[in-house]
Amino acid sequence: DTEVTQTPKHLVMGMTNKKSLKCEQHMGHRAMYWYKQKAKKPPELMFVYSYEKLSINESVPSRFSPECPNSSLLNLHLHALQPEDSALYLCASSQLGQGDEKLFFGSGTQLSVL
Amino acid sequence: RKEVEQDPGPFNVPEGATVAFNCTYSNSASQSFFWYRQDCRKEPKLLMSVYSSGNEDGRFTAQLNRASQYISLLIRDSKLSDSATYLCVVNSRAGNMLTFGGGTRLMVKP
Asked: Which of A101, A104, A110 sits opposite B91 (nearest CB)?
C-alpha cells in the first residue's frame, strides 16, 4: 500500500470546470511533487515543493495551479483545462538531500477533460 | 542526446528466462540511480536503488558502470508477474531532480 494518498482516483471534467486534486503524505518528507503521465510515456515533472515552497515549475501552463498548505499536503487546482490535459496525474514525495531523493508515488488521479 | 535513455522494448521472454536491461545517462556528475517498476495504469514503485558496488535483491541485480555511464538491471528466473514497464531514474540535474528514462517494457510469457 502506498503511503502517499491521492484523491480522487478518477476525475472527469469539462473545459469550463474548476476542480482540485489532493495529495497527502505522513512520512515526514519535505519535498513533494506533481507529475503528469500520458499513456506509454514516462512521468513528466510539473512542480516541486521543497519545505512548502515552490522550488521548480517546469513551464507548466497557468491553468494548473499548485498549492502546498503544509508539509503533508499538496493540491493541484485545475481551471479551464484542455482535452490534451487528459492524463494520469501523480503526486510524489521524497526526503531532501543527495542519495535520499527516491520518490514515493501516490496511486494517481486519472483525469479526463471533455 | 537524451539525459536518460532506455530501449523501449518490448522484451518478450519465457518464464524462467534471464533478462537484462541497460540504461544510459548523459550527466557524468549524476550520483543517485534507481530502478522503478510500473504496471499498466498504476503508479511507479521503487524496485531498487543502484549502488556503486552493485546490489542484489532476490532475483534482481542492479549494476552501475560510471566509466560508460550506464546502469543495468538483471532479472533471473523471470515470473509472469514480472511483466511491467521498468523505469530507469537518475538525478541528472541539480537539486532534488530525478530524470526518468522512457521505460523498458517486459512481457514474460508462459
From this structure: A101
